[in-house]
Amino acid sequence: MIRLSMGTAIELGILNKKCDIPPTTAYVMIGDKCNNNCDFCSQSIESSTRRDRLSRIVWPKYTKEEILNALKTYKGSNIKRICIQSMDNKDAHDEVEEFIDYIKDEINIPMSLSAKVENSEDVDKFFSLGVDKIGIAIDAANKKLYEQIKGNNYEDKIKFIVDMVKKYPKKISTHIIVGLGESHKDIYDLYKYLRAKNVTVSLFAFTPIKGTRMESMSQPSIESYRRVQLMTYMIDKGYFDEYFTFKDGYLNNIKLDYDIIKDIESGYPFEIRGCKDCNRPYYNERPGSTIYNYSKPLNIEEINLAKIEINLK
Question: Judging by DSSP bridges, how do beta strands 57-58 and 53-54 pair with one another?
Fold first, then answer.
């Protein structure tokens, strides 16, 4: 089973609809029903959510022939990468191999893979097939939450990611979901550690999905998320402990210097960061609603709104 995100299908010309923010990556989802049981995920083995959704995105089904033809005849300039999202089951992993083998000699677009890989042999295999980046999710930013929500060992997962970065520098990424119940200090400690180990880290806002065990939880407040965005942006820039004040785990204050103020005035900290050429439009939000991750440079109204939302004195 192969699906494209709706925005990808529109951008590639397979689906005749309009998309106000074109994706810069072609997002492909392979597999039916994940063996994982993550409490927040629409593809969890216990989820009753529609099978054509991941987070709040709809993923229509297509044949590999339709997808390859669309990629080969694509005349636009937005798509710069393919990112394959794989379910965690053997059939899905086999189908990922088949799909990569089917398209890799026909197109000249770099490919990433986001999948549950548990050992070095799996990572070696997928790199040998032709992907140039692999994403290995952490999601929850502290041990208790991770093991409660994901059901795996937290320290083992982080060690595995760091070991893979040593083996494949600049080719391994992960992501953190903000709003699962962690503190800002949890995110600070994990993000700082991962960046020191040269792991690429993306941020998502928790999005409640009907049919999951966490459907009744709320998204994080926009103030909370903006503060995490700015904090992680500053960590990427080399700002550490003395710039951040936490109270009961909450990021109570951020010390700003001229360079960071200038970046805030340009909106940079609030744009999507992480893997190159990945803009993930509307993954956490609906058009017209509160925007957590901006998928394109902010205009002056959006910058002014973000400055209000972050609520720093």
Answer: antiparallel
